[in-house]
Design goal:
- The complex is a heterotrimer of chains A (254), B (208) and C (226).
- Helix content of chain A is 81%, strand content 0%.
- By secondary structure, chain A is an all-alpha fold.
- The radius of gyration of chain A is 21 Å and the shape is globular.
- Chain C has one domain.
- Classes of the chains: A mainly alpha (254), B alpha/beta (208), C mainly alpha (226).
- Chains in contact: A-B, A-C, B-C.
- The interface between A and C is medium-sized, with 31 and 26 residues.
Chain lengths: 254, 208, 226
């Protein structure tokens, strides 16, 4: 099989150029999905029988949780590709995915707390999913801290990649353990964070929001990677040309 | 052993570029170059502590990855650091490194020949830096590796020490071994080939 | 050089010898464990019933902290004096020496903790029925903790202020061990079959023994010499 397309994808220049073409369209789609989802979910979806209007926070909480977890796997896969094929772009993706994922995890925890207060009376509840999400946040912190701790960029990349992979292997174990621990200590409480049978009217805006968040994640990641590419390749010819070009445009506009 | 087109980058800067060299039995190859030109890095790549970004290393005609065990069983590396555990005695260190039984005659002999007779059961942290160096150099007497990689072996040695190392090297290559070393100083030995990392040219045999 | 000498037993024995020569340093985590565990009642309450509730958790958190404290030095001295580089260029598999080193670490950390735990349990009013399960759980669990801490030690070996980072990295990985470890004690107090969580700890230890040395070897090769 011809793998040149794969290796071509590893070139920062190619990435920068092709994303330049797609970026405007992606931004529009993201904006559209997010505003539609938010408006629909926050405004137009019917009230929940038990929780009233406060359940609407799930339109932020659930997509954020999904992306937080998916983002960690993406980061780990990018790290693995970097380790196996020694692709610098892959390491850049991993490095940029870390803060975005951590921020989303924090958002999920925050919205979970906001949801908790009116529903169960307290900002923090030690339920299985929230606790797992907290541990996920710590895993993100570990990868972030390791990235920036090394003097040599390469060594930092490799170390973070291995750590991300070790974390990935552990995530199912952690999740299952916390789940088990929770049922052990609170066997009779209700399932706090599940929405088992949602009315389609409530479910559809959730789908829209989830899609919107995926697009947002992709957008944020691509933007971050582009900046990082420019920073790292600042000495190469194509970046210098780009900077000159932009400078000329600005001058021309004046 | 043959090295073809070796390349090594660190943070996108090429430290070693298209290095080609050969090392045969009975040869001494001196890697020269100013500080920071990548001499230690080259040695580290050749001992497989570092992975190169490009090029290949052949040992007895085979690519290194295929004959890794044979190759690594036959090399000795002495770097800047002594690889000695300071809480262990000189004798314990050497017997551990060379897998001899404690109290073996060859270890004690080696210590005697580097001038440390009677120091064999003192913890290494009580030895001076020079004495610790001599313990590390005693490995040269105990090893039966074919290829020696020595990184700045003459650094901080007095005249006696330099002579000792030169004698060891000569004995080694006369017995069919090979030595690759990095050093600034000129070696007072005959038929040492030179390889310069600055202009990457293969030196010819020089008479001292 | 004979092959078998370069593997598990060589590094195991040498690390134990080195630890023995530095007895004072090596004993401190265990002493720390005992001291802090006795401080907790001073800060909380001396009432036996409340202490009993918290005892499993306290013991396990203390074991965790003590292991982390002692894990930093696992590879650092080898890195500093050049032994690590010699290890990396040896012809034999890297996993066996690593296994040897981590086992030696457990013998100097986890095993003393396990043996000292009845003392703590006594001071925290743990019911006597829980002593054996606690020790069994600690024996297996601290093994896991040692292996996981070794991954952190390998990742941070070339860093200056590595110790705090090591803690940050390894802590999330410790959660499952804590959960099941204290569950063993809790089950025995409640009269339930504590062999269940213990078996899970055993499984975790087996997985750790099988997988961690590989990860550690990869980390050491990739990040230490540059």
């Amino acid at each position: 099989m011809n793998w040149t397309w794969f290796y071509r994808m590893g070139s920062p220049l190619w990435f920068y150029q092709s994303t330049s073409r797609w970026l405007p369209l992606l931004s529009l789609i993201t904006l559209a999905l997010l505003t539609a989802g938010l408006a629909w979910g926050l405004g137009f979806a019917p009230e929940d029988a038990k929780q009233g209007n406060s359940f609407r926070i799930i339109y932020l909480h659930v997509p954020a949780s999904f992306l937080a977890l998916a983002g960690y796997f993406l980061m780990a896969i990018a790290g693995a590709i970097g380790l196996i094929w020694k692709m610098k772009l892959s390491y850049i993706v991993m490095k940029c995915a870390a803060p975005i994922g951590a921020a989303l995890t924090f958002l999920a925890l925050f919205t979970g707390a906001v949801w908790g207060k009116p529903t169960w009376g307290s900002y923090w509840v030690w339920d299985a999913r929230i606790t797992s999400m907290l541990i996920l946040l710590f895993l993100y912190f570990g990868v972030l801290a390791l990235q920036y701790a090394f003097n040599s960029q390469e060594a930092g990349n490799k170390a973070s990649a291995v750590l991300a992979l070790v974390g990935t292997v552990n995530i199912p174990i952690i999740y299952k353990s916390v789940d088990w621990w929770f049922t052990l200590h609170q066997p009779s409480t209700i399932k706090l964070t599940s929405a088992p049978s949602m009315h389609p009217d409530m479910f559809q805006p959730l789908l829209v929001m989830i899609l919107g968040f995926y697009c947002f994640y992709a957008l944020a990641l691509i933007l971050a990677v582009r900046v990082e590419i420019l920073k790292r390749e600042s000495k190469t010819a194509w970046v210098r040309e780009l900077v000159e070009q932009l400078g000329r445009q600005k001058m021309g506009a004046k | 052993m043959t090295v073809n087109d070796l390349r090594f980058e660190r943070d996108d800067i090429a430290v070693i570029n298209d290095a080609c060299l050969t090392l045969d039995d009975g040869e001494i190859l001196q890697i020269e170059g100013p500080n920071g030109s990548g001499k230690t890095t080259l040695l580290r790549i050749l001992t497989t502590a570092l992975q190169p970004n490009g090029g290949e290393i052949l040992y007895q005609g085979q690519i290194l990855s295929k004959c890794r065990f044979d190759y690594l069983s036959n090399i000795l590396f002495l770097g800047h650091q002594s690889a000695l555990k300071l809480t262990l005695t000189a004798e314990e260190n050497l017997s551990w490194i060379t897998s001899e039984l404690p109290g073996s005659v060859s270890v004690l002999n080696a210590l005697e020949r580097v001038g440390l007779r009677g120091y064999s059961d003192i913890p290494c942290h009580s030895l001076s830096a020079g004495q610790q160096r001599r313990v590390a150099l005693a490995r040269l007497l105990l090893s039966n590796a074919k290829i020696w990689f020595l990184d700045e072996p003459f650094a901080a040695l007095d005249g006696q020490g330099v002579q000792f190392v030169e004698q060891c090297m000569e004995r080694h290559v006369n017995g069919g071994g090979a030595v690759m070393l990095t050093t600034h100083q000129p070696i007072g030995m005959e038929s040492v080939r030179r390889y310069s990392l600055v202009d990457s040219s293969d030196g010819e045999a020089l008479d001292a | 050089m004979p092959e078998s000498n370069r593997g598990f037993s060589a590094y195991f024995r040498r690390d134990l010898l080195l630890a023995y020569r530095r007895r004072g340093e090596v004993a401190s985590p265990v002493i720390f464990f005992v001291m802090v565990a006795t401080l907790i009642p001073l800060g909380v309450t001396p009432e036996p019933d409340s202490l009993k509730e918290m005892a499993p958790g306290i013991i396990w958190v203390m074991a965790l902290l003590a292991t982390l404290l002692s894990a930093e030095g696992l590879f650092v001295s080898d890195y500093k004096d050049g032994s690590l580089e010699q290890l990396l260029i040896s012809p034999n598999l890297l996993v066996m020496p690593i296994f040897g080193k981590v086992t030696a670490h457990w013998i100097t950390t986890g095993l003393p903790l396990t043996l000292a735990s009845p003392l703590i349990a006594l001071m925290l009013s743990l019911p006597s029925v829980a002593y054996l399960p606690m020790m069994a759980g600690l024996a297996l669990g601290t093994g896991c903790l040692s292996f996981l801490a070794a991954i952190g030690a390998a990742l941070t070996v070339s860093l200056q202020k590595g110790s705090l980072l090591l803690t940050l990295i390894v802590m999330p990985l410790y959660m499952p061990v804590i959960i099941f470890g204290s569950a063993v004690v809790q089950y025995s107090i409640d009269g339930m079959a504590w062999s269940g969580p213990l078996a899970i700890l055993g499984a975790m230890l087996t997985a750790a023994i099988a997988l961690c040395p590989l990860a550690i070897a990869a980390v050491l090769r990739l990040t230490t010499i540059n």
